[in-house]
Amino acid sequence: MSHTLSDQQRERRDADVNQAEIARLEEAVREDLELAGNLVEVWNSRLAAGRELFFSPTIRAAILAHTPILAFVCPACQVTGSVDLRKLDRHPRASITSLIPSLSCQRCVPNAPFAKLTGLRGDPEDRQERNIHWEAHAIVQAARSATIRRQRDQE
Ligand SMILES: [Zn+2]
Fold first, then answer.
1. How is the chain classified by DSSP, letter by letter?
2. Mean pLDDT, range 100-107, rounded to an integer
3. 117: closest CA among 129, 134, 103?
4. Ligand 1 being an ion, which residues bring their Cβ within 5 A of it?
5. Which band of pLDDT confidence, cut at 50, 70 and 90, is reported for residue 111?
6. Parallel, antiparallel, or unpaired for β 69-73 and 80-84?
7. Beta-bridge partners for 117
8. Cα(10)–Cα(107) distance, integer angstroms
9. Distance 69 CA to ligand 1 centre (A)
10. Residue 46 Cα, ligand 1 centroid: separation in angstroms?
11. Whole-prediction pTM value?
């Protein structure tokens, strides 16, 4: 079947017809972004204070909180390292503690102890002021555009 509407036209139509649904989704994403930020803040502060953690953020939560840099230290030789969670090929719902075995110290192999996580941090390159409203809008729009493209390909 021919594609009589451009993707842009489809997106505009979606934005018009589904205004209430889109507003509801953006509100839910704003809540998710705020919760992710709060969870990482609690986790970081309990970790820094040496308190029991009770939970571990997921990779996706750390990324949504704009703290994608996971820092760690080797308990044996004290070498520190960090990994950018955005660059890992891992399931976004995996907890960051599930990464510990893969972060073990290369210098201390074969007797490397598990790496000790020391915190989630922001990317020093990312100096933009956060705007939760804009971020939520962009996340919902990207998801809807992907859906529109999938539907168009099935026509
Ligand atoms: Zn080591």
1. ----S-HHHHHHHHHHHTHHHHHHHHHHHHHHHHHHHHHHHHHHHHHHTT-------BHHHHHHTT--EEEEE-TTT--EEEEEGGG--S-TTSBGGGGGGGG--STTTTSPPPPEEEEEE--TT--PPP-HHHHHHHHHHHHHHHHHHHHHHH-
2. 92
3. 103
4. 74, 76-77, 105, 107-108
5. confident
6. antiparallel
7. 72
8. 55
9. 20
10. 24
11. 0.85
Measured in Å, residue 25 CA sits from the centre of ligand 1 at: 45
**Spans of all domains in the chain:** 34-123
Give pLDDT tens digits for 62-83.
Answer: 999 999 999 999 999 999 999 9
Phi, psi of 130 (to 5 degrees): -75, 140
